[in-house]
Predict the structure of MOSC domain-containing protein.
Amino acid sequence: MAIIITEINIYPIKSLGGISLQTAEVEDRGLQYDRRWVLADGGNIFMTQRENEQMALIEVSIESDGLKVSHRKKDIAPLKVPFEPETNDNRMITIWDDVVRAIRVNDEADAWFTEVLGKETHLYYQPDDSIRLTDPKYSITHEEHTSFSDAYPVLIIGQSSLDFLNEKLEEKMEMKRFRPNLVFSGGEPHDEDNFRYFQVGEARLVGVKLCARCVLTTINPETAERGKEPLKTLTQYRRNGSKILFGQNLLVVEKGKIALGDEIILEI
């Protein structure tokens, strides 16, 4: 059975709404525009839905001159975010165990997010010359790097894996709960666990580490409400030690264009 790409998603501003694409450019640090922006508090610590679930209600779209950011429920005018920062304010942003140089975008963005989220918030962009290396324990060349993703450039999940989970849930969930970059049809549940090197479109990728899931998956992206699922059910059959695993993290071996309908060609 052919393994076919059915979804391509990016999340330009970390932990905000995603964007579904027909095609994408795979770059060294992941899909173009994916998590190149991050929100940080007054102490330069990155922010996610883990601490503020209201971030789930902020939507992002790409326009010709930058991003458009809007709130699904609050009566506030949309924010335009330029592709290039409008300040020279370089800061070191702490994201998990890493410290990453980034540039503050502008005062307008800071004011918009501060008002929407109810606390001091700044929007930062990771420039091309800011390199955040991936974990050397799961590296191929020790030169792979990523953006403001949690740890790796690309995340892939099979549709069969979600279908298998949904068979066990009282309330079905959409794939957006898990924020993958790539989704594919074909194969058995969790086949992605065994993906190693593969070709898709012009790009070549390699699976290096299963993705450990956190409480962010329990936040409904439509309502920002927290629950117990899917972690409660996944614990029953996807637990490995203290980790609950769902999806495979990928490194970029060769860059290039990918598109919906591309076949994943696994290397034996």
In short: The helical segments are 107-117, 159-166, 231-237. The chain has a mean pLDDT of 97. The domain at 3-266 is CATH 2.40.33.20 (M1 Pyruvate Kinase; Domain 3).
